[in-house]
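Incident log, entry 3
Record: MIA SH3 domain containing (128 residues)
Problem: checksum mismatch between cached and fresh output.
Input:
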Amino acid sequence: MPCKLWLALSVWLLLPTSEAGRQMPKLAGKKLCADSECSHPILIARAVQDYYPGDCRFIPIRQGQLVYVYAMLKDRGNLFWAGSVQDSYYGQQEARIGHFPSSVVEEMHPLMPASTEVTTTKWDFYCY
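Fresh output:
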């Protein structure tokens, strides 16, 4: 019985510090996308420097990696974009869309115009 109590207490103490499964503050109220679902990439960019995320809303990026950009957050001067990293070997990194500073990448290939303004939702900044 003391072991079960200790385990339950340990889990309870760890839950509030975990970012997974919780709502994080919004980075912006609107975003620019290629379509209303933000399902098509706007451009392909190459990372000019490493980026280590501060929390689960962001994705890690290594210098030289290709990033498919799906959205440009609008309210903060286009400081953050949302995209997915493509590693040199397909399948080497899990496909996950996250945010990153636009300053850590350079635009390589425009794919579609970012002409659709979309309101962000809480799910855009939710940590799974």
